[in-house]
Specification:
By secondary structure, the protein is of the alpha+beta class. 44% of the residues lie in helices and 18% in strands. GO terms for molecular function: ATP binding; DNA binding; four-way junction helicase activity.
């Protein structure tokens, strides 16, 4: 098993990244938050798992061990394979997943394309007693403007925003003059709180007052 990868981002495709590790390029399936925050030439570290099939070897990569373990746990559910498991982690944050499974919230899980109501019910039925060890981050203890080594996308995912919201926020951040992660995160949060209205300059000014 390839448990981790550390290297430079060589290419960004629609669903994957190509990561150069000592001259060898690994194609890794990643979530939208990782893909959209990746920059060509930047260093990246991922927790990975290798899917072995007769016709293909596929690497899946995540920012945390917990995400990777949840990806594997999802595949223990009848009828849930790696493709759907990855789609689930691409659509919902780990916090949202653990909360939904623990509370029996099928509606949140049904947001995932290709899962459906029956799939959501099976996940809750088979995993409800198995997710207790996955820690849910208390968003109230995570100030949005605190410095962090995480990327903006990672930080937003940790705060519970879904992939669509993160994608929208990153589009706005990429057009801003902000350079530090802290400044970019402030702009992203202002954009999400205001529904993405207003121009970047206005968002930057408002974020300076946060």
């Amino acid at each position: 098993m390839i448990a981790t990868l550390r290297g430079k981002v060589l290419a960004v495709t629609e669903q994957a990244l190509v990561i150069d590790v000592n001259g060898v390029g690994f194609s890794v399936m990643v979530t939208p938050t990782i893909r959209l925050s990746a920059e060509i030439g930047s260093d990246l570290f991922l927790h990975t798992t290798l899917l072995v099939r007769e016709d293909a070897l596929t690497l899946f990569g995540y920012h945390s061990i917990a995400e990777r373990e949840f990806f594997l746990l999802l595949q223990t559910v009848s009828g849930i394979g790696p493709k759907v498991s990855h789609a689930i982690l691409s659509s919902l944050s780990l916090n949202q997943l653990v909360s939904a499974v623990s509370s029996g919230d099928t509606k949140t899980l049904e947001q995932v394309s290709g899962l459906g109501k029956k799939g959501a019910q099976r996940i809750i039925l088979e995993l409800k007693e198995k997710v207790a060890h996955f820690t849910i981050v208390d968003q109230k203890t995570q100030p949005p403007n605190s410095p962090s080594s995480l990327s903006v996308a990672e930080a937003l995912a940790g705060l519970g925003f879904n992939a669509r919201e993160i994608d929208h926020a990153l589009e706005i951040v990429q057009t801003s003059p902000a350079e530090s992660i802290e400044e970019k995160l402030k702009i992203a949060l202002v954009a999400l709180q205001s529904g993405g209205q207003g121009n970047t300059k206005a968002q930057t000014t408002e974020s300076d007052r946060v």
